[in-house]
Structures are given as C-alpha cells and as structure tokens.
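Board notes (copied after class):
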Amino acid sequence: MTARRIASSSSARAYVTKTELALHELRDRILRLTLAPGQTIIIDETARQLGISPIPVREALQLLAAEGLVEIRPHVGVVVKGITRCCVIELFTLLEGLESAVCRHAIARARSEDFATLEQILNQLDAVRVTREPDRWAELNAQFHLTLASFAGLKRVNAELTQTLDHWDRIRRFSLDVLSFRAADAQAEHWEILEAAKAHKADRVEQLLRQHNRIALEQYLSSVPESAGG
C-alpha cells in the first residue's frame, strides 16, 4: 500500500498509508462532529473526497467500529455512533477506572519537576477564558490528566486514557454548555488534585479523581437525552 503526505494536520505523521490517511481524517471528523452522531458515512463519497479507493476507507471504518466511533449496520451501512446517556456513563466509567488505577504508580514515581509541569498546565488553564476558547481549555484539561498519568510510565494505560479523552472531547463538543458551566469548579478540583499529589497523598489523589469524574458524569448526563445522536 503506497504512502501519501499529509500537510493539513500537524498532529498527523508526515507520511501514512492510505488506510491510515482515511482513519486519521474520518476519526478527526467524527471527534469534531463534522460527521454528526447518527450520520451515515458514504464510503464511495468519502473515498472521492480523500482521493483514494474505497478499500482503505472500508478498512479504516472497521478500525473505527472497533474503537466504538461508528456502527456497521446490516442493510443500512456505516453510521457514526450516537451520543446517549449510556455512552456518557461508559466514558466516565472508563476515565474513573483508568485514572484511579494509575494514580498510585504515578504519585510514587513523580519528581518535583513533574509537579512543576502540572502546575504550568494549570496556570495556562487559569488564563484561558472557556467561553472564548473552549477547544483550548479542553486541550489543556486533557493534557493535565494525561501528564499526571504519564508519570507512572505505563504506556498502554496512557494510550487507553488518550483514546478515552478523545471520546470525552466529542461529548464535550456535543454538550458545550456543560463546559462553560463546569469549568471553574473543574479547575478548582484540578488544583486540589495537584496539591494532594505534591504531598504524595495517593489515597487522597485517587479519591479526588473519582469525585472529579463522578461530578462531571452527573453534569454531562443532565445535558444528553437518551435518544441523542441516533
């Protein structure tokens, strides 16, 4: 399979296979809601847009189905996964489980310069006005959680957490009012998590992370009807 250069996205690798190109572009459109929940993806049309054959598009959609971003429905086609209350519960269950599982290892391994990095991220978050820069706020929020988890040195866990936070960002875009309502409280919780981490209070960090995710869960649930997004 030949490779093609990607110049449109700094997050993509310089060269990817055609399947990876399709995967990157479709995943980005789904996460950014350019492809809306419940929308049918037309394989031939997508292939024409990307300048490739339908085969790598089909391969990419199989991978996205495994990730839980699309559904392959018999006699219907490929549909972008809807955003429902069940989807929100699943997301925050994963976040809570991953962060709770990794935080003890992270706190045990973290050094003073690691905590300084977290403080820099939170200072940047303090400077962002969520009503004007929601995407930047969400990016820094994810960076805080991923950086804390990364101190544990568990690459597979970090990969799972990265993917889960990507799915959170899709729900965040779908329920944008939650972020504007919750940002100040969430940031106060971040600072409390950092202070407990700096004191190497692993039990307290775990407790705070669970609370952080459960409060967010309740607020997102209140914004997503059961039938949302197909």
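Comment from the instructor: Residues 85-221 form a domain with the Four Helix Bundle (Hemerythrin (Met), subunit A) fold (CATH 1.20.120.530). The beta strands are 3-5, 15-17, 40-41, 70-73, 77-80.
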